[in-house]
Specification:
With about 375 residues, the chain is α/β, with parallel strands linked by helices. The protein contains 15 helices and 14 strands. A hairpin with a 2-residue loop joins strand 4 and strand 5.
Length: about 375
């Protein structure tokens, strides 16, 4: 009798393989599962699918559902033919697949937004939902110097809002570039990064913690907290809620950065195409990826969003830190040790050493 572990592995493999291998030459598989973590309607991508199928009426588009955060990497180990033809992934998964030669180099075809450029080559179309870490405030109640609210339940608040803002200088972006390249020219234990972690922790200790994203948004909508620091999908959730529940506040909302030097900004997801396709299929998949990247999330004639766009356009951008490395690194970095650091049970130096260990295990 096979062990339960062996049976479990077989079942996992069966789930992963479902919908990935082409059933016939006219089938194209696509995976947008990661977008469940992004505040955007899947309908816009289904509209892209419909536009694409108008050009290829004889083709069948098969949607694959992800079964876990790492399943694309697991599929890649079995060979490029097991990957979906077109799929949405984050930057660090894309880097792993690009370094293994398993996704198509789209240099000169897809726009270069930096997040999906590895070794000077572009490997994905950006999913047009950009991510920004920004202070959203009521100009009638916040003077730009008083405390701000943040979601203390989300460890990424510290990394994506505070630390990413504090490493926006040339030294910080150079440090991050070395870390992303894995060239061993930089480390989490470098005094520069440890100092930024200490600075970020001191800021969060002074600011106003809320126990969840929902509580933070409600506090802002009700005008209990006149300024909040949010990042990524939380920005869109906040704006959508304020627009519905407090339109007067929405009309006057303003945006600011933690430091004068930079705004953490980037694209959390890209549309990749697997390697190994024949020329005809590759042309079809490039068109599909382009269609998926053509959606504009921001509404026209919205003065509030225009003010946010103005801040983005007028700021120096720094990378959002969590857009780098891989899922296992961040999962393990936060699973047991983040709360110890946030509560003061371990120092920034000790936490940096833990981060470096996980970085070397899961990334290097």
């Amino acid at each position: 009798m096979r062990s339960l572990k062996a049976v479990s592995l077989l079942l996992t493999a069966a789930l992963l393989l479902r919908g990935c291998a082409k059933r016939n030459p006219d089938d194209t598989t696509v995976d947008i599962s990661i977008l469940q973590d992004v505040c955007i309607s899947w309908e816009v991508f289904h509209d892209a699918f419909s536009r694409w199928q108008e050009d290829y009426p004889g083709h069948r588009l098969i949607e694959r559902e992800s079964v876990g955060p790492n399943d694309l990497v697991i599929l890649a180990v079995m060979g490029e033919e097991h990957l979906p033809d077109v799929f949405v992934a984050n930057s660090h998964t894309g880097r792993l697949l690009a370094e293994a030669g398993l996704v198509v180099d789209l240099t000169g075809v897809a726009p270069d937004v930096d997040a999906f450029t590895y070794g000077g080559e572009v490997y994905a179309y950006p999913v047009p939902v950009d991510s920004v870490s920004v202070i959203v405030y009521d100009p009638l109640a916040w003077d730009g110097t008083s405390l701000v609210g943040f979601d203390s339940s989300d460890p990424y608040s510290l990394i994506d809002c505070y630390v990413s803002s504090l490493i926006g200088d040339v030294e910080g972006q150079t440090w991050l570039s070395h870390m992303a390249d894995g060239d061993k020219e930089a480390s989490f234990t470098d005094a520069y990064f440890v100092d930024r972690m200490n600075d970020a922790l001191n800021m969060t200790n002074e600011d106003i913690p809320y126990s969840s994203e929902r509580e933070l948004i409600d506090a802002f909508v009700s005008c209990e907290c006149p300024a909040v620091f949010v990042s990524g999908s939380a920005v869109r959730s906040l704006l959508q809620t304020v627009r519905t529940d407090n339109p007067g506040l929405y009309d006057r909302i303003e945006f600011s950065t933690l430091t004068d030097s930079c705004l953490p900004y980037g694209y959390p997801c890209g549309v990749f195409i697997r390697a190994g396709l024949d020329d005809e299929s590759l042309v079809e998949c490039v068109q599909l990826a382009s269609e998926m990247s053509s959606y504009t999330a921001l509404e026209e004639n919205d003065d509030t969003l225009a003010r946010l766009n103005g801040l983005v356009a007028g700021s120096v951008h720094s990378d959002i830190l969590s857009g780098h490395f891989i899922y296992d690194f961040w999962h393990n970095a936060y699973e047991e040790n983040y709360e110890r650091f946030a509560d003061g049970d371990i120092t920034a130096e000790e936490y940096a050493g833990i981060l470096q260990n996980y970085y070397e295990i899961y990334y290097i």
